[in-house]
Design goal:
The complex is a heterodimer of chains A (79) and B (272).
Chain A lengths: L3 E3 L6 H4 L2 H5 L5 E5 L12 E5 L10 H5 L5 E3 L6
Chain B lengths: L2 H6 L20 H9 L4 H15 L6 H11 L4 E6 L1 H10 L4 E4 L1 H6 L5 E5 L3 H8 L6 E2 L2 H14 L2 E7 L4 E7 L5 H9 L5 E2 L3 E5 L12 H5 L5 E4 L4 E4 L10 H4 L5 E5 L11
Parallel strand pairs in B: 1-7
Antiparallel strand pairs in B: 1-5, 2-3, 2-4, 3-6, 5-6, 8-11, 9-10
Classes of the chains: A alpha+beta (79), B alpha+beta (272).
Chain lengths: 79, 272
């Protein structure tokens, strides 16, 4: 199991198009709706959340691909 | 017999009891609310919420209490059980109003859209009213049958999902890798996220020749239940791990794998 931190402020899913999800081989990231809307017919805004960290194999692909450097793993961070 | 069959099966498996598909089931207000909640983009909020709750079961102090709460509340929510191809074909012969919808897990976990969720019953009309222009494909019973057989050959696991037990609303044709049900079950061992199927597999010792050490069934199993035994040159099953999806049968060239009722295998019986 790996300690994950995704900074919500830096993460902009609409600009990058969920690159970390596409690159993750085990499906650790969940696109979590930012805010609950009353109408289920309207698409919500998503934020990346590392929900299933149990499956992380520590390949670090997501850290290198994130254009906003929003993902850190166990204290590692690209600059 | 799993706990749902005891309560709702009338001597049969719960998803094969025609009463559970009747319109009277939708008279339940809680169920109406839930069906509304899991249609359209509502399922996104639902998966977000449920994965948060099951994640809490890892807490050292409160984990046991949270697991007990999940066990009590899960049947009133949206959950499922693994079914073999035979059972899923029987399910669609009872159900009606088939519609293929994009898999929510795949959309949320890898941002891909694939119409692989075979929904039936009240879901079609609800989805139509919530997302009239959204991606959906209405299909007939014959097409649904063909679809399930095709997906089975591709190695997709079938899971029957209920909206407040015991009303089945969906057969999802799952990629194990992206399925959020399994992602919730495995980290903290929460069987309520997705129950094992009613069967386990048995490998015939006479027919299995291990395919010369490169057995395709071992690769096909997503649960690590099959292993090649070098001493005997045959494939061995760990029944404690088998979910009973029966997908390994498609990979077997010699028809050496068959399904057997879970209750007949001591290691597996009662292990949902």
């Amino acid at each position: 199991m790996t300690d994950f931190k995704v900074s919500a402020k830096a993460c902009d899913t609409r600009a990058c198009g969920f690159k970390c999800q596409a690159v993750c081989p085990t499906g650790v990231f969940l696109a979590a709706p930012r805010k609950k809307l009353a109408d289920y017919g309207i698409e919500p805004e998503y934020l990346i959340s590392p929900r299933f960290t149990y499956f992380c194999n520590g390949c670090m692909e997501c850290v290198t691909i994130c254009p906003e450097h929003a993902i850190t793993i166990k204290g590692h961070k690209t600059t | 017999m799993c706990e749902f069959c005891e309560k709702h099966g009338h001597g049969n498996r719960w998803y094969l009891n025609p009463d559970n598909y009747s319109d009277e089931m939708m008279a339940d207000r809680d169920r109406q609310k839930l069906v509304e909640e899991i249609c359209g983009y509502g399922i996104d909020y639902y998966i977000n919420f449920s994965s948060k709750v099951t994640g809490l079961a890892g807490w050292p102090a409160l984990g046991t209490a949270i697991k007990a709460a999940i066990k009590r509340l899960a049947p009133k929510q949206h959950g499922g059980q693994i079914v073999s191809l035979e059972d899923s074909l029987e399910i669609i012969s009872i159900a009606n109003n088939f519609v293929l919808l994009p898999c929510a897990c795949k959309r949320l976990v890898v941002n891909k859209e694939e119409l692989c969720c075979l929904n039936f019953g009240p879901i079609r009309d609800m989805q139509r009213s919530l997302l009239p222009d959204g991606p959906m494909e209405e299909i007939t019973l014959a097409e649904a049958r063909e679809y399930l057989v095709g997906k089975d050959a591709e190695g997709r696991i079938h899971q029957v999902l209920y909206a407040k037990a015991p009303m089945p609303v969906c057969i999802c044709n799952c990629d194990l890798q992206w399925c959020t049900s399994f992602k919730q079950r495995f980290p903290h061992n929460i069987p309520e996220a997705v129950f094992k199927g009613h069967e386990v597999i048995v490998v015939s010792e006479e027919l299995c020749d291990g395919c010369g050490g490169d057995a395709p069934c071992v690769e096909r199993c997503g649960f690590g239940a099959l292993a090649y035994d070098e001493e005997t040159g045959k494939v061995m099953v760990d029944h404690a791990l088998c979910f009973g999806c029966g997908l390994c049968r498609v990979a077997c060239a010699r028809d050496a794998i068959a399904l057997l009722s879970r209750s007949l295998v001591p290691v597996a019986s009662g292990n949902w």
